[in-house]
Amino acid sequence: MVHFMEKLADAVTVTGDELTSEERNLLSVAYKKVIGALRASWRIISSIEQKEESRGNHSHVSAIRTYRSMIESKLSTICDGILKLLDSKLIGSSSNSDSKVFYLKMKGDYHRYEAEFKTGAGRKEAAENTLSAYQAAQDIATAELAPTHPIRLGLALNFSVFQYDILNSPEKACSLAKEAFDAAIGELDTVGQESYEDSTLIMQLLRDNLTLWTSDMQVSPTSSYICLPTTWKKIKLTFMLV
Questions:
Q1: What is the pTM of this model?
Q2: Rounded distance, CA 138 to CA 172, Å?
Q3: pLDDT tens figures, 211-235
Q4: Which residue positions does UniProt flag as site: Interaction with phosphoserine on interacting protein (predicted)?
């Protein structure tokens, strides 16, 4: 599916057209399925490596590190592929705010995935690239998308996760998440039925993260939260999943 979507993106941009909203989501789904499995494998193998190292099982650790390196190589290949496509084709050809924010957010996401497994200078560079992409997306989203827009909310979700997980800045993470949540709450009654469930689902995720993070910081959340639905129909929100 990744190969097919790459071909479609190439064909569309050659003619001067753009991917539709559905095609953008399919592109995201295709890469998310591949990268998601690899990220999960990397986390598991890294956890096993730490346990074996603490037990002094050096022969096991050596084999595990070899396997981890293989996973990291695959992760790098996937990230390089989508980042090249975004930089060379998709971002430059986007003409509306939705697609610009979508692609810049996606660029930030895949640089963030690189920062998860890289070390030293490589991790620093990946983190800087992530911050740059997310900030560019946020500037456009804040100026041109409604606070309740699913793409703007999804960006806030992932940007705040980046601040918490990669930059180790829980205060900034909470500030980003709270600001996005509170801004959306203020306009929730204006949201159409078409995007209501998408928006409120992401708001629920923002609130869940705020609850977790403020608990870790031993500080109670200060927002006046509304009660959001806890059951949802299956919807296409793969573009915003962390």
A1: 0.87
A2: 14
A3: 999 987 764 444 433 333 333 333 3
A4: 39, 112
